[in-house]
Write a structure and sequence with these properties.
Strand order of the largest sheet: 3-4-6-5
CATH class of the largest domain: Alpha Beta
Distance between the termini: 33 Å
Number of helices: 5
Number of strands: 9
Largest sheet: 4 strands, antiparallel
CATH superfamily of the largest domain: SPOUT methyltransferase, trefoil knot domain
CATH architecture of the largest domain: 3-Layer(aba) Sandwich
Number of domains: 2
Length: 169
């Protein structure tokens, strides 16, 4: 749970505010029950504080609910949505929405630099590397490296946010 909470915090919260142009999808693929995705939308998020206990409480409350059907994003509270599915569904949705998909990989290249503003999606794992099926799902997408050392997910998110802020500011 700590890994997920820190990722949400790093992706969405800035000093005295929320990144309105950012979303984060948590893929919950282990444990009992079907795969589930929890989407936090910075643009509409409300009522969540940037402390780990508050975010964990939101996630735990969602986990008590039945998983909605794949592709049906049920709004749980303002800016937080729940749906079924896993990484394959997210990649399919991003492809349909023309999101530039990037996979964090120590053997990848630099973050693509462009002056165009477009939606960018980043796939990163938790404390474990992507498994074989996830690697297969992501094999056709750009690989981005943040260095040769394995970094914690929330640190990766912070670095990516900084790089994107530098590109588009």
């Amino acid at each position: 749970m700590d890994v997920l909470v820190r990722a949400v915090n790093s992706a969405l919260f800035v000093s005295h505010g929320i990144r309105n142009d950012t979303e984060i999808i948590l893929h919950l693929l282990g444990g009992p029950g079907p795969d589930r995705r929890i989407l936090f939308k910075g643009e509409t998020l409300s009522g969540v504080r940037p402390d780990e206990r508050s975010i964990a409480g939101q996630i735990k409350a969602i986990l008590k609910q039945p998983v909605p059907p794949i592709g049906v994003f049920k709004e749980i509270t303002q800016g937080i949505f729940d749906t079924g599915g896993g990484l394959e569904e997210t990649i399919s949705e991003w492809t349909k929405d023309e999101v530039s998909i990037n996979v964090l990989d120590a053997n990848g290249g630099d973050l693509p630099t462009t002056t165009e503003t477009h939606d960018m999606g980043f796939i990163l794992s938790d404390h474990m590397p992507l498994n074989d099926s996830e690697i297969d799902l992501t094999k056709d997408y750009a690989k981005v490296s943040l260095g040769k050392d394995w970094l914690q997910g929330h640190a990766c998110i912070t670095i990516i946010q900084h790089q994107i802020d530098s590109l588009f500011s």
